[in-house]
Amino acid sequence: MLEIRNLHAAIDGNEILKGINLTVRKGEVHAIMGPNGSGKSTLAKVLAGHPQYEVTAGEVIYEGKNLLEMPPDQRAREGVFMAFQYPIEVPGVSNAQFLRLAYNEKRKHHGEEELDPLEFKDLLKERAKVVEMDASFMSRSVNEGFSGGEKKRNEILQMAVLEPKLAVLDETDSGLDIDALRVVAGGVNQLLTPDNAIIVVTHYQRLLNYIVPHYVHVLAGGRIAREGGKELALELEERGYDWITSVDTSKTGAGAPAI
Amino acid sequence: MVTELVKSENHYQTAFRSIRESSPTVPWVELVRSGAIDRFEQIGFPTVRDEEWKYTNLAALAKETFQPAAAPVEFADANIARFAYPETKNAHLVVVNGFLRDDLSTRTGLDEIVAIDLFSAVADARYNKIARKYLARNANYHDNGVKALNTAFLQSGVFLWIPKNVKLETPLQITFLSDTTQAPTEPKRASFPRLLVVAEENSSATLIESFVSAGDGSHFTNAIAEIVLKDGARLEHYRLQNEHRNVYHVATTAAELGRASSYDATSINLGAQLARHDISVVMDHEGAECWVDGLYVGGATQHTDTHSVIDHKEPNCTSHQLYKGILDGNARAVFNGKIFVREGAQKTDAMQTNKNLLLSPQARVDTKPQLEIYADDVKCAHGAAVGQIDEEELFYLQTRGMNPELARSLLTYGFAEEVIGKIKIDSIRSQLDEAVLTHLHTRLEA
Questions:
Q1: Hey, what CATH topology would domain A2-252 get?
Q2: For residue B410, is it within any domain?
Q3: B256 has which bridge partners?
Q4: How many whole angstroms separate alpha carbon A129 and alpha carbon A157?
Q5: Are B10 and B149 found together in one domain?
Q6: B429 close to A (CB below 8 A)
């Protein structure tokens, strides 16, 4: 489904990603972990098409197409979804309005008929159950005045409505208490099918107790420093990131001490 | 230059003499009118040298010869009802070029409300005392030539009297129509719509003023609305200005609030080539509350200017103000909001916000919120902001599959919605949603 080859990306001339290789197949959950500044959020944003990041080398093939050539909205309509670490507030636009517009844009893209507000209301009601959101959230402005947990749940609601083939969850666990984490993770698990795939970007292992990854990739210094199964996350939880970053630097021969 | 100005203003003098003959009135109104034309002759149109008119230049307007009407124009629009909202179809007054047209108006939903020609009210034994007390009281013509001109040309208008304890269930709409359908050979016209609203104790009503144009000719609309709320009265007031882009629209809304009264004003400015709206609320009785909100939207070369004054004279009054502006193309906007808290007006709660969204690099806004506080136990805050569409917001919407154009429309719509959303009349709200987007040449099927 997704093939990332030697991906380099920079922001304001500073190279953050320095050659990422990653293959994601249908039905898989991948966790991208790493210390602050390792480039994991950058990877998520590059996949979503954030205009501030410049891809300087490498390629990303998604469903046989060159993902990097598509503008962000086209990527979304083709089934790529990113749950934001800091979801944006859209004052004056109701959640229901927003979701219906997004949903219909995708329908149109795939040559399907748009849903009218009533039809959409039924669909929304059904999908809202996934993240245990009640109807009052639908008439409120998108994310406006939402708590941190509500915003994250709203992201997963959007995912439930848009049914992406590839979902990238950028630090969806940050700022969540344990109950909210359980709801959000539960929602994600319900949305996982044999036909889609999820990339979970996270600093902590905590979320991976709920969303169990098939593969864990640890980023350090803009590269994948270590890969393994879900047990790698547990090891990180126990030992921290230092041992990976030090292994990484010694491997590349830079000789810099671990920070 | 000076001679030219005086010369062009002379035609107003000539017109005034002719209306004095064609529309004689009671002596006190004669005095008001002649006092006003004298004042206009002294001060003329405001110029940019006047601080209050620094950014709004009326020189082009002053130079042109707009002919004040001396009588109602022939205007037989079979489809006049198109200007009414479904909610107001039984309570719809139509004023054409400043003249109230009973033949085009519908009054069945008015109950006990008196809504008659202001010019007849001043001579009517039942209402002349009220009219005399309040006419030209809040819209003082001495400081401003435009207001003086409106006052001088008082020949019709609307007198709206809401008796004590009467609660009007149906919103009342007054459509002020500028008939700009003159032939190229005919003179361009000036109209002077005038409204006096007196809401007696504990009454409540909803009033919609809508300013529209028939035709695409040039026109000068010079409107004044004076509003008096007695103790405990409530008025929800919508002012919708959507005149043709060849129209000069200069207007004043002046309200005084009684004890524990409530005035909720929302002013929407979409139309006209040049629109200036002065709105003032004087709170000189305790416990009054007002909302003075608005939205201005400008595109192409439109110029829109709002000057507001909220005057807290007595203790325990609350004012809320939110004005938003959306400017595209080469449009220019001015917002000047003054809040006075006079000595002794303790426990005043005043909040003022002006936010502007610029959609093009050429659009411009001059905003000046001003607070003058002479009391020490008050809660006041004000702020102004000018910004563009936020790139992160745009990206967020794009990652949800919306193309950049749709995303911009949605964000713009959302920006306006903070003001439009508070409108309690459904059909106005949806019409405005559409109008704002049409104005910005975008569409949104939401």
A1: Rossmann fold (3.40.50)
A2: yes
A3: B228, B282
A4: 9
A5: yes
A6: no
Instruction: Estimate the crossing angle of helix A95-109 against helix A117-128, to 10 degrees.
Output: 100
The total number of residues shown for chain A amounts to: 259
Same domain for B173 and B26: yes
Cα B119 from Cα A47, distance rounded (Å): 70
Q: Please name which of A211, A164, A188, A193 lies closest in space to residue A63, comparing C-alpha atoms.
A: A164
Q: Is A93 on the interface with B (CB under 8 A)?
A: yes
Q: Which DSSP category does B9 fall into?
A: H
| Total domains in the fold of chain B | 2
User: What φ, ψ does residue A33 adopt, rounded to 5°?
Assistant: -120, 170
| C-alpha span between B408 and B389 (Å, rounded) | 7
Of B266, B285, B304, the position where a domain reaches its end is: B285
For residue range A172-230, list pLDDT tens digits in order. 998 888 988 999 999 999 999 999 999 999 988 889 999 999 999 999 999 999 999 99
Return the structure tokens found at A251.
Answer: 């491997």
- Token pair, residue B375, equals 């009391």
For A47, nearest residue in chain B (alpha carbons): B399
**What are the tens digits of pLDDT across the range B257-305?**
999 999 999 999 999 999 999 999 999 999 999 999 999 999 999 999 9
The answer to whether residue B106 is domain-embedded is yes
Write the ipTM.
0.93
Which value, to the nearest 10 degrees, does the dihedral of the CA atoms of residues B83, B88, B93, B94 take?
A: 0
Residue type (1 letter), B298: G
- Answer whether A73 sits within 8 Å of B418, measured CB to CB: no
Q: What is the pLDDT of residue B210?
A: 97
Question: In angstroms, rounded to a whole number, what is the distance separating the alpha carbons of residues B124 and B26?
Answer: 10
Q: Do the beta carbons of residue B172 and residue B91 sit within 8 Å?
A: yes
Interface test with B, best of A53, A73, A105 (most B CBs within 10 A): A73
Q: What angle do CA A76, A80, A81 make, to 5 degrees?
A: 85
> Would you call B398 an interface residue with chain A, using a CB distance cutoff of 8 Å?
yes
Decide if B295 is inside a domain. Answer: no
Domain boundaries, position B422: 392-446
User: Rounded distance, CA B85 to CA A43, Å?
Assistant: 53
Distance CA B315, CA B377 (A): 10
Question: How many other C-beta atoms lie within 10 A of the C-beta of residue A124?
Answer: 23
Q: Is residue B218 one of the residues assigned to a domain?
A: yes
A141 to chain B: which residues are within 8 Å by CB?
414
Task: Report the 10 Å Cβ neighbour count for A13.
Answer: 7
The per-residue pLDDT for range B408-421, each reduced to its tens digit, is 989 999 999 999 99
State the DSSP code for A143. T
CB contact under 8 A, B418 and A91: yes
Out of B396, B415, B446, the one facing A97 most closely (by C-beta) is B446
Give me the sheet containing A14-24, strands edge to edge: A14-24, A2-11, A53-62, A65-66
Residue B445: per-residue pLDDT: 46
- pLDDT of A163 > 70? The answer is yes
Residues B104 and B224 in one domain: yes
B49 touches chain A (CB under 8 A): no
What pLDDT, on the 0 to 100 scale, is given for residue B315? 97
Residues B113 and B241 in one domain: yes
pLDDT of B77 higher than 80: no
Q: In chain A, which residues have their Cβ closer than 8 Å to the Cβ of B395?
A: 48, 50-51, 72
Dist. CA B232–CA B258, nearest whole Å = 7
